[in-house]
Each structure stands twice: as C-alpha cells, then as structure tokens.
Amino acid sequence: MLETVAQAVINGLLIGGIYALVSIGVTLIFGVVKIVNFAQGEFVMIGMYLSFYLATQFGIDPIVSLVVTMPVLFVVGVLVQHFLIRRVLGPNDMPQIFLTFALSLLLLNLALMLFSANYRTVHTSYSDEAFHLGGLYIPVAKLIAFVVAMILSGALWVFLHTTDLGKAMRAASQNRDVATLMGINPNRVFCVALGIALALAGAAGSLLMPFYSAYPFVGQVFVLMAFVAVVLGTLGNVIGALIASLMMGIAESLGIQYVGADSGLIVVFGMLLLTLAFKPNGLGGGRVR
Amino acid sequence: MDKARRWAVAAGAVLAVIVLILPLVVTSSFALDIFIRILLFSFIGVAWNLMGGYAKQLSLGHAAYFGLGAYTSTILQIDFGISPWIGMVAGGVVAMLASLPIGWLCFRLRGPYFTIATIATAQALMLIFLKFRDFAWGAEGTTIPNLGNAPLMMQFEVKWAYYYVALGLLAIGLAITYAIEKSWMGYYLVAIGEDEDAAEAIGVNAPSMKRNIYMISAFLTALAGTFYIQYIYFIDPPTAFSFNISIEAALVSIVGGIGTLWGPVIGTILLETTSTLLQSWLGSSIGGLQLTVYALILMAVILWRPTGLMGMISEIYRRRHPARAKA
Lengths: 289, 327
Hints:
Chain A is mainly alpha-helical and 289 residues long.
C-alpha cells in the first residue's frame, strides 16, 4: 500500500519536472510581457520533433540534442516577440489572446500537415533501464529528465537574481513603466523573456523524447498542465510555478493510480475548477478581485 | 430618407430575396450543404458575439453549450420520444442553467485566464460525457433514428428544409442581437467590454449584466447544437463538445468584426468559402489544412485589421462620405 503510494509519488514527481519547464516558461512570459502564451505547448512539440529528427537522421541522443533545441527555440522566441507579440501589446485583451492562440492553431496544424498524426518515438540505450530502490522503480530516462529540468530551473533562478539582464526582467515584471524610466529597454527584455521561455519548452521536448511519443497534439497536454500550475503557483512567480508543477505531477499520478488510467486530465481540470472556486485569490496576477 | 440610405435599403431587400429563394435556384446538395454550414456557423458566431463581441468576455468554451443542447434534445428524443423542436428549447434552458455555475466560476477571472477557464469547463463536460456511458452512450455515441420525412421530429427528406430551419435560427439570433444593440443593455455591455471597472464606477451592474448575456448566448448556442445533430444524424462527445466549435464561434466573429451585428455572418462567409475552395482545389485529404488557413487569416486580421472586415467596410464608407460620417 505505502509502496504503491510512494511509487505513484515518484512517477508524478519525475514527470512534474517536465511540467515545471513548461510552466516556468508560461509564468515568465506572463510576468514580464503580461500576455498568456497559448502556443507554449506547441513549442514543446517542436522541440520533440527537432530531437526526433536529430536522433533518427544524425544519431544524436535526445538529451544531447538539448544543445541544439534550446538555442534554436531561443531564436524563435526572440522572433515571435519581435515580429508578432510586440505589435499587439496594449490595453486590449482580444488581440493578445487570439494572436498566441492563432499561433498555436497554426503550428499544430502545420505539424499535422508536415508530420501526419503518427506517433514518433526514439529508442535510446537507457529508455528501458531503471534503478530499483527497495521495491521502488525509477526509470533512468525520467530521472535524467527530472534532474536536467531542475538544473535548468535553478540556472534560471540564478540568472534572474544575479545578472543585470535578469534583474532588469524582474524589474520589468514588477512595474513596466518605472522600469522603462530607469532605462530598461522593454522590447529587449521581452525578447529575452520569450527566448528563455521557448528555450525551456524546447528543453522539455528534448528531455521527453527518450520516453514519450511525439505527435502534433502532444503540446496540448503540457500546456493545460502548465496553465493550471501557473494559476496555482501565482502568476508570474517562477518558484511558485515550479512547486505547483511538481504538485500537479504527483496529483495526476495519484489520480491515475486510484481513479483510473484515463482520469489524468479529469484530475487536472478538477484541480483548476476547485482552485477557481475556493482559492481564486491564489491566482496572483490573474487580476482577480 | 437620403439617397445612400435608399440604396442600402434596396440592396438589403435584394439580398433578402436572394437568400430566401436561393435553395429553389441552387439545388445541388453539395452547394446546399455549404449554405447550411454558413448559416449555422453564422448563427453560432452571432451567439458568441453577444458575449465575446459586445461585453468582450472572450470565451473559448462555447462547445459546452452546443454539446448540452445537442445531448438534451437527443436524450429526450431517443429515451422519451419527445420532438427535437421541444428538445431544442429544453436544451437551450439546460444550457442557460448550466451557464450560471460555469459563469460563477469563470467570471472570477478576467482576460486570458477567463478564456482558459472556459476551455477547461467545456473539456471537462466532454470528459464527463465520455466517461459516464450509462446515461449518454459514452464514447461510442449513437445515431439518431431516421424516420424519413418527419417535419414534426425535425427530420426532412429534402435538404432545403434544413436550409430554412438554419436561416430561421440565424434570423432569430440577428433579431436578438439587434434588439440588444439598440437597448440600454447593449450600451452597458459595450461599456463593460471597454473597461469593466469604469463601467461599474458609473453604476453598471457588471456581474449581473455578464450573467444575463452569458445565459442568452448559451441558450442560442444550444439551439445550434440540437440542429446540427439532427442534421448529421449522429452524436458522440467529441462531435458535440468539439473544441473546433468553440474556436470557430470566436474566429468568425473576430474575422468578420467583433461586436458588430453582421460581423459573424461576413466572417463565416469568408472562412467557409475559403475552406470550400481550398478543399476543391487541393482535395480534402490534407488533414490540418483548413485550420492552418484559418489560423493565418486570424493572425492577419489581428495584426492588420483588429476591427475585422466590418471595420474595413465602415472605413471605406467613411472615406467616401466624410461629411456623413462626421454627423
């Protein structure tokens, strides 16, 4: 009994690390640029396909392909900010919501046209390996993904708190107008925020590849998780999103264990609706009264 | 009446006559099918636009009400033998009642987080209908028993009959929108859409206004759900609660012109025509093509014409008649 619970918690915690990478990206963009990126999941999908093709065409291990996916998606993020998002920043909600939504729709359906709806997997030497700790089972691929995810999150925290650019980003997220008066160039800061957020999504894609299938809709699972985690962890708060993501992973895993294999999403939506019903003020930047 | 107005009335009358006699002239079932889709999605867009366009409550969860309407009338028809005409209204009432708790939850949030909450509620409803198979056929869904020509059960052997039902629905939707637009409620809604806090400060009861318009919008969307299921003779959760319904409701309104009477209609005509042309040129086998093109159109509208096609039309009108526009 206790062992089953412990196993479910471990499974949840390990996948929670991936959720954290996606959520931190969403919360970073919301904190700094004040928009919700509906397309964040599609960038995880792009990261997965990039890793998939690097692995099948050039034999590069998916984890190693991080060094390609992260810079590529960083550049994509800068371009998305500079050519798309910059043009809709203003007091009006509609263009902001529907621009990133349209981007998500576009990327998803382009992927459907280019790659078809088939599931793609990469089999690595460690895909089936696992540690046994007492009666517990810890898959190596998921453990690597979790550890790298935590290292990247930690690196982001250090970046935000020690570098000038990081401090500028935090200043911009606290008060954009004052930050601008202090000589911070908002578009530059926004570009970096989008770049980092998308690089994290790309990293999540690469880390998923050894144990998860790539398909055009794959991002939707992760982005829904991220939205809930970001709401739970107070919008714009990196540490909050990290902790909430790990909690979400554990909750989902316990839901699958005790409610049924197909109830992961029901648990997620249930958590979102319960949060809204009983703890709407935990939603920090959600502009809740 | 000045000259321009006389022209507008004449053009409107000609258009109305064309729309009314269209199915008598065009008898190809392929073309009729497209016209029916245009009428139906215009109607769904009109229902969405009441809340999303005027009050700027940008929902992406209207599939919830489409599905509830569809399931209510189907359950009433198959389990109790009640005509879908009655089931349609019953479905509307169910959707209206469902909008109260859903609204209570979602209206706690504003902006993008309201949108996400509406997506979650619609998806949650779909999962419920998928999971509980005993009360609504679960994931398998069911076909609607074909009774041949039974107008009282909303079943027709001729396609043009469906055309007129859809046209009737759209006319009701437009009439309600027109009435609301011209009433105090319309002004209140626009005020809420512009700036909710400011609207409240000058005495608009925003929570009650939003609740009321959400109920009307949900009611109308549910009517579309019943009609659609009767038209395709099949229901299952992914069809009835399809996320694409939620997307298209918002899309046609934004492309056509958010918060305008005719915006959703013009938007639907543009999008559906584009999608039909694409399919006939490239074949319907390319999955994802339609939504790729829709997404590109949506992005183009947002980046260059946030007021949609209606905004473009009124701009051209103003440029040609600068004096009248000032008055």
